[in-house]
Amino acid sequence: MTLRVDPNALQMTRQQLSAAIGVSGDTLAYWLKEKLIFALGKPKLGRGNHRRFGYEAVHIAAILAELS
Q1: Cβ distance 53 to 12 under 8 Å?
Q2: CA-to-CA distance for 43 and 59, rounded, in angstroms?
Q3: Quick check: 52 and 41 in contact, CB under 8 A?
Q4: By three-state DSSP, how is residue 36 classified?
C-alpha cells in the first residue's frame, strides 16, 4: 500500500515558515536568492501575491536551519 502525499496540502507564507523553523526572514531571503528553497507555482508580481512554500520547501528549510 502506498500513501499519497499531496505536495500542496502544506502551504506556508514566508513569515509562517520563518516562525515555524525559527530563522529570520533575512535568512529565508538568502536561501531563496541562492536557490536553496523554492516557492510553489509561478512567481506573481504585485501586492497581495504572497509566495507559498510547499511540503518539500518546508522540510528543506528545516534541515538547513538545523545545519546552520
Answers
A1: yes
A2: 21
A3: yes
A4: coil
Overall residue count recorded for the chain in this entry = 68
**pTM score, two decimals?**
0.72
Q: Is the dihedral of CA 37, 18, 59, 65 positive or negative?
A: positive
Amino acid at 20: A
| pLDDT tens sequence across 30-58 | 998 999 998 887 766 656 667 788 888 88
Task: Give CA angle at 6 (24, 28), nearest 5°.
Answer: 10
Distance CA 4, CA 60 (A): 20
